[in-house]
Amino acid sequence: MGGITTAMNMHLVIPNKPTGYNRLIISSFGRKPSKVWCMASTASAHVSGLDHPSSHVQHNPPRRSGNYGPTAWDFNYLQSLNSEYDERYLRRASELKEEVKKMLVQEKELSSVEELLELIDDLQRLGISYHYEDEINQMLGCLYEQKYGVGKNNSEETERDLYSTALEFRLLRERGFIVPQAIFDCFRNEKGDFDPSLGHDTKGLLQLYEASFLSTPGEKTLDLAENLPPIFCRKILMKRLMRACRYWSPDVNRLVLELAKLDFNIVQTTHQQELKHVYEWWKQTGIAENLPFARDRMVECYFWTTGVFSHPQYSYPRIVTAKLNALITVIDDIFDVYATHQELQLFNNAIQRWDVEAMDQLPNYMRICYLALYNFINETAYEVLKQQGLLIIPHLRKSWADLCRTYLQEAEWHLRGYTPTMEEYMNNAWISISAPVILSHAYFLVANPIEKEDEVKRGDVPKSIQCYTNESGGSGEEAVEYIRIVIGETWKDMNQEAFVAEDTPFPQDFVRIAADLGRMAQYMYQDGDGHGIQNCDIKTRISTLLFHPIL
Question: In which domain, by residue range, is 176 found?
Answer without folding.
Answer: 94-256
